[in-house]
């Protein structure tokens, strides 16, 4: 059976993280290799991750809710919340890394850009 894009992304990210590459760096690296936005790669990864781990939207139908059912539902909701927090932290780290890289690039090129603009201003006098 052919693998989906999401499955390929998932497998490649998992292989990189198994080698010790931080997940945020693996997303960036694969995004660059595939010429895609980092968020697209991340979305593919987590989409496949949810389906691989039995995630989905189908629910079993019950006639009545028992205390045990309610407790199991609450536990599942809290476990999903923990996973959401981890994804939020990963996403925030990625955004922070991208912002830091942008800051460094702008800072590194600032003097050259200012000099070029100053040169052109002088030419207009």
Provide keyphrases for this structure.
125 residues; mainly alpha; 4 helices
Query: Uncertain runs with pLDDT below 50, 5 residues or more?
Result: none
Radius of gyration: 23 Å
Order of helices and strands: HHHH
Main beta-sheet strand count, sense and barrel state? none
Distance between the termini: 69 Å
- The helix count comes to 4
User: Could you say which structural class the secondary elements and strand pairing correspond to?
Assistant: mainly alpha
Number of strands: 0
> Which range best describes the helical content: under 10%, 10-25%, 25-40%, 40-55%, 55-70% or over 70%?
over 70%
Taken as a percent bin, the fraction of beta residues is under 5%
* Shape call: elongated
What is the average per-residue confidence, as pLDDT, rounded to a whole number?
88
Structure explained in plain terms:
- By secondary structure, the chain is mostly helical.
- α1 crosses α2, α1 packs across α3 and α2 crosses α3.
- The model has no long low-confidence stretch (mean pLDDT 88).
- The protein is 79% helix and 0% strand.
- Among the domains are: 52 residues, no CATH class; 31 residues.
- The N and C termini lie far apart (69 Å).
- The protein is built from four helices and no strands.
